[in-house]
Amino acid sequence: MSYSIAEAARRSGLSIDTLRYYERIQLLEPPDRDPAGRRAYSDTDLVWLEFLTKLRTTGMPIRRMREYASLRRLGTASAGRRKAILQEQRVAVLERIAELRSCLDVLEYKIDNYEKIECAMADVLDSEPQGVSA
C-alpha cells in the first residue's frame, strides 16, 4: 500500500515536517515517489517510523538513532552493533523506570499522608459539638 505524506503523518503520529526532517537527516530512506513526484510511503516505511518513534520515546538521542539507521542500511552484517545499541538503550530505559518508580513512591507516600490528614480533620469535625438548639 502507498500513503501520501499527509496520510503517513496521520498514521505515524508525526508531523509532515518531522517526516521531511527524518528524511533529510537520513533516519528515513527517501520514500518512493508517485507519478506526480509526491512522496509515497509504504507499510514498511510506517513500521520503521513506528520504531523510530519508540526509540525517541525511550529518550534515545537523534545522533544514536542516526547511527542505528545507518547500520540498518548495511543489513545483517551490522546486526551485532545494532543489538548493542538497543541493549545500551535498554539499560538507560531501565534506569529511567527505576527513577520514575522512586518518584512514584514519594508521590504515593505524600498522597497517603494527605489522606490521613483529611481523615483526621473529618474525625475532628464530626466530634465537635453542634450548635445548641433553643
TrEMBL record:
Instruction: Kindly state which keywords UniProt assigns to this record, in alphabetical order.
Output: DNA-binding
Q: Does the keyword DNA-binding apply?
A: yes
| Phylogenetic lineage | Bacteria, Bacillati, Actinomycetota, Actinomycetes, Pseudonocardiales
Matches recorded under InterPro entries? DNA-bd_dom_put_sf, MerR-type_HTH_dom, MerR_fam
Q: Which positions fall inside the HTH merR-type domain? A: 1-71
> What's the name of the protein?
Transcriptional regulator, MerR family
Coiled-coil segments on the chain, per record: none
Q: One MF term from GO for this chain?
A: DNA-binding transcription factor activity
> Sorted alphabetically, which SUPFAM superfamilies does this protein's record hold?
Putative DNA-binding domain
Instruction: Give the highest taxon in the source lineage.
Output: Bacteria
Is DNA-binding among this UniProt entry's keywords? yes
